[in-house]
Specification:
Length: 158
């Protein structure tokens, strides 16, 4: 088995996605791997900008906003481990499962670690889960992490 050097840790910034990010950070800390916490913005904003010929200039403030949200998410939930790992934070706009697979392929990640649960709703019913689609199409191994009972309970209480 090859040594794990690069871990992709997708998140949707939900409470339920914490399990996957936490596992990726702990694995990176123990193995010395680099971890990229990756947030793909999929929203009405994406649809508006995707259809626009002026996509790049209009997209910059949207990406800035979501980069700040990702940074705050990591600081709020993982402040003690962040200084102990080699970490990159990346935000892109697109379709999460497609972007995750393309990112893993394009940057030769050794492993993708993501939660089995995240945001749900109508898009989940129509397209299936992001995790399922990533597992089917990923160019590298995928480790799917279930949220703890406490994380599931906290989500229901929120």
């Amino acid at each position: 088995m090859n040594r794990i050097k690069k871990i992709l840790a997708p998140t949707d910034l939900s409470e339920l996605s914490l399990a996957g990010v936490r596992y990726a950070l702990e694995l990176a800390r123990r193995s010395g791997a680099e971890v990229v916490v990756y947030y793909v913005v999929w929203s009405d904003e994406f649809l508006r900008y995707e259809l626009s010929h002026l996509r790049s200039p209009l997209l910059a403030p949207v990406l800035r906003k979501h980069r700040a949200q990702l940074g705050a998410f990591l600081d709020r939930n993982f402040a003690t481990i962040l200084p102990l790992v080699e970490l990159r934070q990346e935000v892109e706009v697109g379709i999460p499962e497609k972007n995750i697979v393309a990112k893993a392929d394009g940057e030769n990640f050794d492993l993708i670690v993501l939660s089995t649960h995240g945001r749900a709703g109508l898009s989940h019913m129509i397209t299936g889960s992001v995790t399922e689609n990533v597992v089917r199409h990923a160019p590298c191994p995928v480790l799917s992490i279930r949220p703890t009972p406490e994380e599931k309970t906290a989500k229901k209480a929120a």
